[in-house]
Amino acid sequence: MNSKMVKKILVPLVVLAASILATTALLNSKPDVAKVDVAQPALLVDIAQARKELISFRVESQGSVSPRTQTTIVAEASGQITEVSPAFVRGGFFRKGDILVRIDPRNYESAVKRARANVARASTQLAQDRALAANAQADYKKFLQSKPKSGPASDLTLRKPQLQQALAELQFAEAELEKALGDLDRTVIRAPYDGLVRQKNADFGQFVSPGTNIGTTFAVDKAEVRLPVSQKDLQYLEVEKLQSGEPIDVVLQAELGGEVFSWSAYISRSEAVFDQTSRVLFLVAEVNDPYNLDSASGSPPLLIGTFVTASVAGRFGGELIKIPRRSIYQGDTVWLVDEDSLIYPSTVNVVQSDERFSYVSSGLEDGDQYCITPINDPIKGMRVRFNG
Fold first, then answer.
1. Residue 257 neighbours by CB distance under 10 Å
2. Long-range pairs for 182-185 at CB < 8 Å and ≥24 separation?
3. Residue among 110, 109, 132, 128 nearest 120 (CA)
4. pLDDT tens sequence across 154-197
5. CB-based contacts of 153: which residues, under 8 Å, 6+ apart?
């Protein structure tokens, strides 16, 4: 191997070795970096202090307001409608006995006149037959005086059949008059109660016959709300009151025009059958005077069809701790805060929950501090901070 080839091989090796030595020297000469432990930042949360209090349960439900009494008004006479009340319009209020619709009565008035004439005719005939029967009785008494051994007179001799026929004809004529008067009265359709017109199906000038649907009305003395209650929630109600029919207080709420209003109601009955599909029992709440017609109220009228939420008074639950529902983690865990602002879990027994609160019987003690703010992936011993 000649010297030129040796140089070509050695030069790169020398350069590579020198680079390695230089790099090693630089690394060894680098000063040590001090390591500092960085404390994990404390999580800002809201906390509250557990307090025991006497709790009466309430069961939440919801439903739509419906009329307790609704009626389909139908014509009972035939003829042309000749009068319609100004109140007989959709949403019109009326009082019991008000005339809503009047049907042309002329044919029925004629029938009444004919019936009166028949009664008068039958009355006259009965009077004549009574007089003839009295004369026949007197004549037969005279006959017995001349022939005392004669037997009793026959009914025909004393004109009893004729008298009975005249009496029957009078009773028939009076019945016909009573029917004619009833038919005439039915040409006037009167309001059966204090109420409101829900639907109007006939108007002035229209010809109607018996059975024609005139409209739909409902009473405004009471309204109803069907409230579904699950089998589980029934345990929080005073079932003995439901069974005895004793009323249970209810508070109804609805939002109208951006403002929430409340109405007092009461459970009047249950429908006594569980729905086979939803497995709920419907309780029926009643509201007195929902349209405020007979009483002054601080709330606006509770209109039929309004969707409401309901809070039903339940049984006494004893001494419990009420906590915000959002503060419970995974259904049964509350994160307590100790004196060092460290959190640790506690399993609680939730007796009942509503939309806002849960009611705890164990797992929390009076005076315990707990996190209200929900924590994502909490860890035992995590430090927290809070206002105040």
1. 6
2. 183/77, 183/108, 183/111, 184/105, 184/108, 184/109, 184/111, 184/112
3. 128
4. 777 777 888 899 999 999 999 999 999 999 999 999 999 999 99
5. 136, 140
